[in-house]
């Protein structure tokens, strides 16, 4: 009887160990999982939970914004909001230092000199959307999605140079 009990206990612990191990492995592959394996975190924060340094910088940059949503992501602490038709994501590190800002908008908000370069290089494509990333030292990088009847092209603009990132056929 004793032997059966210990054999059963060993079997139960073995099965439990395999189950917990496999669940942890599955959780590491699911985006948004709470496992600390570098997965995307998307935890909502309130303004009083954010570093005061980040809040001061945010209020200095965006005086009229009050509807921002703060989240914790892999990039750090992010404030997301919209001003008119332009959506913004402002990212800060854990200490409250500004890291980068991403703006997403339509063609009409793209600076004229950059739009002109696209019209010359990709005259048979329509600009469907723009993602502008601003990093320190006023370095701006644009990722532009272009479309025509054959498919889509993603083009990156950095330091005035156009480079094709991806081409997708319809």
What would you say this structure looks like, in words?
The structure is a single chain. The chain folds into two domains: 1-37; 43-169, Nuclear Transport Factor 2, Chain: A. Helix content is 28%, strand content 39%. The chain is built from three helices and nine strands; from the N terminus they run αβαββββαββββ. Strands 1-2-3-4-5-6-7-8-9 form a nine-stranded antiparallel beta sheet. A hairpin with a 3-residue loop joins β6 and β7. The model is unreliable at 4-39 (pLDDT under 50).
CATH C-level of the largest domain: Alpha Beta
Sketch the major β-sheet: 9 strands, antiparallel
Number of domains: 2
What gross morphology would you assign? elongated
The overall strand count is 9
Structural class assignment: alpha+beta
Order of helices and strands: HEHEEEEHEEEE
Using only C-alpha atoms, the radius of gyration works out to 24 Å
Strand order, biggest sheet?
1-2-3-4-5-6-7-8-9
CATH architecture annotation of the largest domain: Roll
In percent terms, what proportion of residues is strand? Answer: 35-45%
Low-confidence stretches: 4-39
- Number of helical elements: 3
CATH fold group of the largest domain: Nuclear Transport Factor 2, Chain: A
Helix content: 25-40%
Distance between the termini: 68 Å
Q: Taking all residues together, what is the mean pLDDT?
A: 79
SSE blueprint:
Layout: H1 2-29, E1 43-45, H2 52-61, E2 69-73, E3 76-83, E4 86-92, E5 98-105, H3 112-121, E6 126-135, E7 139-147, E8 151-158, E9 161-169
Antiparallel strand pairs: 1-2, 2-3, 3-4, 4-5, 5-6, 6-7, 7-8, 8-9
């Amino acid at each position: 009887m004793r032997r059966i009990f210990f054999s059963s206990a060993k079997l139960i612990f073995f099965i439990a160990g395999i189950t917990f191990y496999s669940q942890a492995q599955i959780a590491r592959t699911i985006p948004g999982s709470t496992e600390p394996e570098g997965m995307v975190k998307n935890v909502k924060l309130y303004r009083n939970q954010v570093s005061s340094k980040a809040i001061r910088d945010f209020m200095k940059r965006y005086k009229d914004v009050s509807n921002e949503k703060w989240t914790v992501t892999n990039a750090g602490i992010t404030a997301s909001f919209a001003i008119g038709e332009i959506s913004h994501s402002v990212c800060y590190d854990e200490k409250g230092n500004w890291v980068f800002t991403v703006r997403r908008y339509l063609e009409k908000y793209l600076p004229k000199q950059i739009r002109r370069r696209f019209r010359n290089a990709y005259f048979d494509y329509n600009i469907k959307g723009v993602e502008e990333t601003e990093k320190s030292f006023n370095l701006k990088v644009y990722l532009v999605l272009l479309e025509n009847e054959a498919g889509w092209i993603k083009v990156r603009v950095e330091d005035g140079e156009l480079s094709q990132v991806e081409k997708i056929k319809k």
